[in-house]
Amino acid sequence: MPQETIQVLDVVLRESPSWNYVTVSRSFFSTTFGHRGDIGEGLECWRGYYQSLRPTQMGLSLNIDISATSFFKPVTVIQFVQEFLNLRDASRPLNDRDRVKIKKALRGVRVETNHQQDQIRRYKITGITPIPMSQLIFPVDERGTRMTVVQYFMERYNYRLQYTSWPCLQSGSDSRPVYLPMEACKIVEGQRYSKKLNDKQVTNILRATCQRPQQREQSIREMVLHNKYAEDKFAQEFGIKVCSDLVSVPARVLPPPMLRYHESGKEKTCAPSVGQWNMINKKMINGGTIDKWACITFSRMRPEEVHRFCCDLVQMCNATGMSFCPRPVLDIRTATPNNIENALRDVYRRTAEIEKGKPLQLLIVILPEVSGSYGKIKKVCETDLGIVSQCCLPRHASRPNKQYLENVALKINVKAGGRNTVLDRAFVRNGIPFVSEVPTIIFGADVTHPPPGEDSASSIAAVVASMDWPEITKYRGLVSAQPHRQEIIEDLFSVIKDPQRGITVNGGMIRELLIAFRRRTGRRPERIIFYRDGVSEGQFSHVLLHEMDAIRKACASLEEGYLPPVTFVVVQKRHHTRLFPEVHGRREMTDKSGNILPGTVVDLMICHPTEFDFYLCSHAGIQGTSRPTHYHVLYDENHFTADALQSLTNNLCYTYARCTRAVSVVPPAYYAHLAAFRARYYVEGESSDGGSTPGSSGQAAVAREGPVEVRQLPNIKENVKDVMFYC
């Protein structure tokens, strides 16, 4: 592609808006685009639009979508701190934890001072003083006269400072700091908050921006008219004309696959309707067996409520096809949330004594009412004790409805090594094109990065692979830590020198999964399909080069000349292409939410001019406007037809274990995301600053020089790895 030429034209179209609006990456934001909503803790959301010039099959296209993001409210720093820390009493000193939080939030933010009437000066915050303002002394003149900040402000500006027990903001360098009292500073308008939002803020921003397809399409149309491309002087100068209408594209709706359930149920097969179905009259195709289980509660639920919940859950598991012993190995244990680790070890020890070393198959955990314990429970169970666990929130467990119990049963079954459903065509000879013909392994891979501002936390790579053929529903998951924000998965294949034996040993996640597939199925994979999530366009060739090479080497290390053909597909959810039904409100064109139908596939006009890619909306919308997933085939040695790969991908979306709905992303990629997200909890517990978000390790307060050493993840116990524990 003539990338530079396209970039030049893109820059031309960005010139006008970048003078008038706040630019964030490829989007523009302004308070003129409508209501700015308070999203809590000192932040507000601004509206704007995304714009990108893209080469497509029909020539150059302008991709436009409405967007929203978080900005600092232009308020005094005192007000920001009170809102950010949720403080009622501003007279009490800030503790160390609060100081670190404020330092992280405000580092790099521009403020203007308001203590001198005639002049406003701007500063960039570099830190926060370790001591309160009342104790802060600094040299005032060349002779070394020292004065407190409070005295200085009184004498120099006749300004009486009130919040003397709070620290000062610091600007400038550590060697020549400028101290700024918080009350004398106001945050400059138009600064984006780039760090991770908490759950409440995310909910608020979604509530403010969530629009049904018809409204969103209207908003996009209005935004395009508002931008007045025809009057853009720069566009005119370069002879660029922009058509102000949306483009109409042809699409197909792929049929849903038939699903197979157990012979003993009333309904042995099921035809999903508009992307969903249910478990009524059906039994799981392979029900797992749980003979040895226990339950522990960290909540304030009454013992009889917990007992009733366990009975209801066991009954649901048995009704849907599992074999679940009604009696636990131990009586239900109750423990306090501040004693999680010991309580879990105690359950493990007691069951081991009773069962003479036979492992516990499942631990049902009722979580505390206050959030924040889930990660610790999973880490202890999966990496220390080797227990498969199912966590439940007390608000659901105390009043469980049938749908909730059914969903939990689906999760428990795959954690017990069972299968919930299978594609009906999997049992027909050559029923699934390409996959049924020869033993095929399907991989999913993802890398999750720490949130912005966490400068020292590792990125986490996860790879899952199907372990059953021809069914393709069970996936084994592996995780690995790697350097901060590194996109390429490092541990796909590795060669390690063993100093004791003086030889080199082959390893890595792909190799381990290929060996596990052969152990489970007795066959070696003759075809590999690799769905790779989390790659941006700029990284395509880089990732393909390294990761294809790793797949090749992993195969060759198992057997000389073993080179199964590989199809390498990048899965992208984070893009701004939106598909709307041509006529809103027509039942045959939309689902209940007004979105395009599940199974809608587009591979003409708006896709890449020369490469193999398509947009697939495999799920039914629930809220807002559905985002189709973009699948881009970077390498294809299996010579898939477009139709075969689109159908396979769509069909796989109906095999996701955790619900009876078609999901929006192909399950192997979804599972890899879940596994990576789970592993984030393993490293997190050790250094959390008490923030409510995964991945908020407190080490980031220290500025590091050079690369940070990657802390390896604790090993997941083998018995946990054998099942889909990340579900």
UniProtKB/TrEMBL annotation:
PAZ domain span: 76-189
GO BP field: regulatory ncRNA-mediated gene silencing
Domain spans labelled Piwi: 362-684
Record bears the keyword Cell inner membrane: no
Molecular function terms, GO-annotated: RNA binding
PROSITE patterns for the chain: PAZ, PIWI
UniProt keyword annotations, A-Z: RNA-mediated gene silencing
CDD domains registered for this protein in UniProt: PAZ_argonaute_like (cd02846), Piwi_ago-like (cd04657)
Source organism superkingdom: Eukaryota
Family: Belongs to the argonaute family. Ago subfamily.
Protein name: Piwi domain-containing protein
Organism: Brachypodium distachyon (Purple false brome)
Classification lineage: Eukaryota, Viridiplantae, Streptophyta, Embryophyta, Tracheophyta
